[in-house]
């Protein structure tokens, strides 16, 4: 699939989520390693339920993107700004790298850098936060590298 290059970094770009990738999202959300880092319980995700989730995100116009490798236009994960408060100018980041072979290699850091820039420069946010499970060491290193405390 050819993706729309919305926000670029060195090795990746962010492209708005599309319903056509419901099967890919279902695969990622059925990976216990992915869901272990998301503040949720592991449930079986079908292609239909993933499509409904993506439709909801698109309909609500949430800033939600797929993380795409520049070298081959392969989707490897997802990143979203949730709880966007236009009055207080705040939002919360959610991210995961769905493709196991790309975890721990800096792609998440690039994606975070891109969405932070998007949040501050395009959405005019003043504060972006996130939460992390204490045992998610890859995420902790990544977030600290970008200045989160």
From TrEMBL:
GO molecular function, one term: acyltransferase activity, transferring groups other than amino-acyl groups
Transmembrane domains' residue ranges: none
Domain N-acetyltransferase per the UniProt entry, residue ranges: 12-149
SUPFAM superfamilies in alphabetical order: Acyl-CoA N-acyltransferases (Nat)
CDD domains per the UniProt record, alphabetical: NAT_SF
Protein name: GNAT family N-acetyltransferase
């Amino acid at each position: 699939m050819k993706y729309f290059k919305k926000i670029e970094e060195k090795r990746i770009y962010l492209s708005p989520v599309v319903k056509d990738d419901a099967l890919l999202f279902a695969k990622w959300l059925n990976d216990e390693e992915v869901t272990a880092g998301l503040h949720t319980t592991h449930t079986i995700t079908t292609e239909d339920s993933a499509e409904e989730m993506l439709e909801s995100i698109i309909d609500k116009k949430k800033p939600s993107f797929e993380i795409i490798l520049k070298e081959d236009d392969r989707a490897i994960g997802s990143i979203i700004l949730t709880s966007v408060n236009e009055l207080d100018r705040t939002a919360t980041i959610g991210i995961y790298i769905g493709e196991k072979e790309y975890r721990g290699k800096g792609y998440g850091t690039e994606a975070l850098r891109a969405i932070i820039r998007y949040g501050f420069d395009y959405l005019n946010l003043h504060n972006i936060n996130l939460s992390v499970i204490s045992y998610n060491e890859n995420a902790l290193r990544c977030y600290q590298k970008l200045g989160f405390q």
